[in-house]
Amino acid sequence: MTYPLIVLPFVVLTVIVTLATARLPRFRRRMASSGLTALVLVGLTLVFDNLMIAVDLFSYPPEHLSGLKLGLAPVEDFAYPLCAAFLVPAVYTLLSSAPSPKDAA
Length: 105
Prior knowledge:
Keywords: Carotenoid biosynthesis, Isomerase, Membrane, Transmembrane, Transmembrane helix. One of its GO terms (cellular component) is membrane. This is Lycopene cyclase domain-containing protein. GO terms for molecular function: intramolecular lyase activity; lycopene beta cyclase activity. The chain is mainly alpha-helical. The chain has a domain at 35-93. It is built from four helices and two strands. It has helices spanning 2-20, 27-54, 79-97, 101-104, and strands at residues 69-70, 73-74. Strands 1-2 form a two-stranded antiparallel ribbon. Strand 1 and strand 2 form a beta hairpin. It is elongated and about 55 Å long.
């Protein structure tokens, strides 16, 4: 179960950073946008990962996986697009809401 352990820090970081933006303006709107983006990315991952695995472009050693799959794709593959859909907007929000150096002067 190597791959689930590799994914875990990314998921934890995504949850922490996303929750850190919960009190900032437009959180609900950002979550709705991130959710829609996540659906699209997961759909694309589902189609293309299954296709690439089916034509034998790559494979995963079964002993390193959780065993859960969507088609041919292990569920661990879906963590990265989910994290990207929520983490990138959260980081952007935190960075854009931070006071700039010229505001401190």
